[in-house]
Each structure stands twice: as structure tokens, then as C-alpha cells.
Amino acid sequence: MTVQITVEKETGAFDTPSLPVFVWQDTLADLSLGDAVTAVDAAFGGTIPSSVLGLTNDGNPGIRRLSKSAFQFTINYRSDTNKPSKPPSVGEFRSGFNWRAPRKWLQFAPEVARFPSGAAPSHDLVNAVLDANSLNVKSGVWVEPPVANLTKTFSVAASTVTGSWVRSIAALMGHVNSTALTSGAYAIGEICLVSAVGSLVSNEAFHLDFGWSWIQNVSDETRDQVTGVDYNGHDHVWDFRQGFIDRDIVGVVQEVVATYVHRIRPYSDLSAIGVQPP
């Protein structure tokens, strides 16, 4: 008795072709899956081509039993970058990363500007508010991660994703651009790195997904009685208010007497990671 193999015409897409391969026992006796696999392996490079259209076998065939004496194998051919990554074996490790800009509480941050320029006091308190007796000051703000309104998704060779490169991305998470990006499309202070996710998707390809937040810089803004306010998109801006007696309404009203700009996120050269926003 002999195990027979028949290869039919390829099917599937041009870049992911498949070959249907039929394996059967010519005496119609029982054929085990192990014997069928052994026959297919022996036929590779001969009856079964080792490549189709220049693409190699991805090593993950489909198998279907047709009868007690016959199987159908579907041999898939892929480029190295399109071959799916198999689940890790016991004891095998596979790396990936998922970085996100953190939420944080700030009570102090460097003051980078105040308007009018001679306004007093000058301080590093954020969102300062006087109590009713103007004796105590409360301050602080929760800094939320900005929304990623710019994204870029692509794949690179898995060998290029090193531990040091991944850690360099983590160190820049939540930082703002200290240099213009994307050939000058984004000015200093407009881009914040919000997220970076990476995972192995094939034997050769590492999938990367980056997210940035773009907030345009502001120039010559008016806030109540304060004019000429300038600040970068990712700066924190707040107004210091004081109460005044309004004799027309016979009451106390709050009026902006000074506007403060604080640098709440560190600035770095975001182009250093080798990826820039679209």
C-alpha cells in the first residue's frame, strides 16, 4: 500500500497564495494523521513546491480529514513579514510595550510668562486662589493626558526594536517637542507624545502604533481685561482674579487681573525616536 499525494492549482490572493494538497491511502485503508503529515513533509521540494510566486511556506497548514483514508492539506505561502507569529512555547518569552502619558497632580510648575508682564505676584503656584480673607492660598491642578489626535501605524523589522530604543520612548512619554517637527509643520510646544504601542505580528515584523496630541500655539489672546496673552499649546494657562465692588449692581464681581503661563510638561527633542507625526 502507498500514500498518494495530489497537488491542485493555487488559490487565494496574489500575495498570499495557497495550494490544496490531497493525501490518501491507495488501498482505502485507514490513514493516520501522523502518516499523512510524514508524507507531506517528504514531498516538499518535489511534488509540493517549496515556494509559490517567490513566497515560501509559512509552516502553518490547514488540515481537514475527508474520510478514514484521506486528508486535505492547505499549504499557505507568505512573505517573511506576513507570516503570522505563532504563540510562544512554554518557557519562551515575547516582548511588547504599551506606553501612555500619565495623569498627575501638580501644585508647583515653572512660570514661563505672566500678563501684564509687571503683574504681581510672580510665583510657581498653579491655579492659585485666595480665601475670603486674602490670607491663605490654595493651588494645584490635575494634569490629564491629552487626546491623541494624530496617529501613525506602521511595521519595522523586528530586529530593529531593541530594549534601549523602547526605553527611550518610555522616557519621552508625555513630553512636548523642543524642536519643530514634520518639516516645520508643527512649531515648538505644539506636540505632546501621548502613546506608543508595539507588538510582534509576524516572524519578521514588529507592529508600531504612535499617538501625539497637537494643540496649536496661541498668540495675542484677550482674557477679560488682560490682553496680548501668548502661550504654547501644551502650557497651562490660568487667570488670577480679584473681587471689586461694582456700584452699578451694588455687589462684588470677580475680574481677571493677571494671566499666568506655566510649563507643566518637560520639553524634549521628540524627533530622537525616529518617528514624527503625520
Which stretches are poorly predicted, pLDDT < 50 over at least 5 residues?
none
Q: In what range is the share of β-strand residues?
A: 35-45%
Assign a percent range to the helix content. Answer: under 10%
The radius of gyration computed from the alpha-carbon positions, rounded to a whole number of angstroms, is 32 Å
Number of helices: 2
Question: What general outline do the C-alpha atoms trace?
Answer: rod-shaped
Distance between the termini: 64 Å
What is the strand tally?
Answer: 22
Decide which structural class fits the backbone: mainly beta
Biggest β-sheet strands, sense, barrel: 7 strands, antiparallel
Number of domains: 2
Helix and strand run: EEEHEEEEEEEEEEEHEEEEEEEE
Average pLDDT, all residues: 88
Provide key terms for this protein.
278 residues, mainly beta, 2 domains, seven-stranded antiparallel β-sheet, four-stranded antiparallel β-sheet, 7% helix
Overview of the molecule:
- By secondary structure, this protein is mostly beta strands.
- The protein folds into two domains: 76 residues, no CATH class; 188 residues, no CATH class.
- The protein is 7% helix and 45% strand.
- It is built from two helices and 22 strands.
- Strands 1, 2, 3, 4, 5, 6 and 7 form a seven-stranded antiparallel beta sheet that branches.
- The longest helix has 11 residues.
Protein topology:
Layout: E1 3-7, E2 11-13, E3 16-25, H1 33-43, E4 51-52, E5 55-57, E6 62-67, E7 70-78, E8 96-100, E9 104-106, E10 111-115, E11 129-130, E12 137-138, E13 141-143, E14 150-157, H2 163-171, E15 176-177, E16 191-200, E17 205-214, E18 218-223, E19 226-231, E20 236-246, E21 251-262, E22 267-268
Parallel strand pairs: 15-22
Antiparallel strand pairs: 1-3, 2-3, 3-7, 4-5, 5-7, 6-7, 8-16, 9-13, 10-21, 11-12, 14-17, 16-17, 18-19, 20-21
